[in-house]
Prior knowledge:
The complex is a heterodimer. Chain A has one domain: START domain (Alpha-D-Glucose-1,6-Bisphosphate, Chain A, domain 4, 2-Layer Sandwich), CATH 3.30.530.20. Chain A is 25% helix and 47% strand. Chain A has helices at residues 15-23, 28-31, 119-142, and strands at 4-11, 35-42, 50-57, 60-72, 76-83, 86-97, 100-111. In chain A, strands 1-7-6-5-4-3-2 form a 7-stranded antiparallel sheet. Chain A starts with a strand and ends with a helix. By secondary structure, chain B is of the alpha/beta class. Chain B has one domain: Rossmann fold, CATH 3.40.50.720. Classes of the chains: A alpha+beta, B alpha/beta. Chain A binds chain B through residues 2, 4, 15, 23, 43-49, 68-76, 78, 89, 91, 93-97, 102, 104, 106, 108, and chain B through 218-219, 221-223, 225-226, 228, 280-282, 300, 302-304, 306-307, 321-327. Chain B: InterPro entries: NAD(P)-bd_dom_sf, SDR_fam, SDR_member_12. Chain B: Pfam families: adh_short (PF00106). Chain B: This is Dehydrogenase.
Amino acid sequence: MRPTVSRTFTTTTPPEAVFDYLADFTNAEEWDPGTVSCERVSGDGGVGTTYRNVSTFLGRESEITYTAVELERPTRIHLTGHNEQFDGHDVLGVRAHGTGSEVTYTAEFSFSGTARFAAPVVAAYLPFLARKTVDELKARLDRLPA
Amino acid sequence: MGAPIASRALDTAMDRSLVLGYTRIGLAVRRALPGWPADPAPGSLAGEHVLVTGASSGLGIATAEGLAELGATVHLVVRDEAKGARVRDEIARRLPAATLEVRRCDVGDLDDVRRFAAAIGDELPSIRAVVHNAGVMPPERTESAQGHELSMAVHLLGPVVMTEALRPQLAGARVVLVSSGGMYGQALRSDDPGYLKGDYSPTTAYARSKRMQVEMLPLLADRWSLDGIHLSAMHPGWADTPGVQESLPRFRSITRPVLRDDAEGADTSVWLAATEPAPADGRFWHDRRERPIDLLPTTRSTQDQRSAAWAWLTQATGLVPNQTKGA
């Protein structure tokens, strides 16, 4: 089982500014309600850059190493997240929409070891999590300087 | 979209039953339901240039005719110019005021697509719409001039190369990929875009290439949105086209009484090219309404598969990444 959630929303901020904000994954501290801390471990912000992300999920804290695997300014951001029990993808598609942008955020998760029993719980919780994340993300993006 | 809930529910129920939705019954019912999106305004394409590939048969003729009826100068982009000229004359008999041009291009040959795009791009400063309608279903596995599996080349690689080469001329334009409901039965095969593994089946090759189109649709729409290009994909339902007549005779013999005619199959392409305001970008349409790209959980692609497919597509078409950070 590979729980996936995808949400599309619009923001008044143009694609380049959206991309620059989201491609720096340390900003997840602001826009991702689950992220407690996110720091850059290696790299210059481009493809191959790694981040240490600490997040809480259903009351449990976990540390995940994220790697930027695709960055096509300003349209595509793809990070993979990994720890012993978890593999995930965060993908953001950014599209020009009037003078702002339409953003599609997709998160895909897979679990190994005992964590795989959590997959159905995660799947059930995802719509709620997605709404909270997208609300925060949109609010942050709308306030960015163009 | 402002359709009443009951008519939307009926529309969706027909869509998921396939047989009701994809036949002419589905279109007839939908047209009668409240909330059916309005036709493009008469004359809405007057003075505009539009391109229709595969315009010498089936849905292509009907698409060209539908666009000409709205006032567009229609460029019939065909492999066989003599056949194209016959179609031009046939449409002109029905629409004496239409302006129709025959253009030669083999959409499956990327060198020829680049030649064609350069020539027409020199001639026309602005193109209002492209309907990528050309389709093939080779009975045996066939390779294009560049060594790509032919249905993939004609349905995806050629359209991508043509659109990319015409980005300046297409600013603000509509671009429509004609897909197929057959793609619902196939998963994304990013591991084998050339159909090199397993036994070749014409219908599977066709449906796989149509699946690849809709999987790559959002990424291509993102890319071309930067030029104000509005990219959509659609499926025509089950239409009685030469492709169906030659390649699926048994399917045709059973379903013929309810198969759509060409104009019914082309309806959504014409609507997407001309309706105002532009429908939302990067969506998959059938009968003037957005549709899901998966009906079965088993066809849902993973992010790794999409990334692999995108890497393959950019390589095969020579798309230069927008701007890769740090690669």
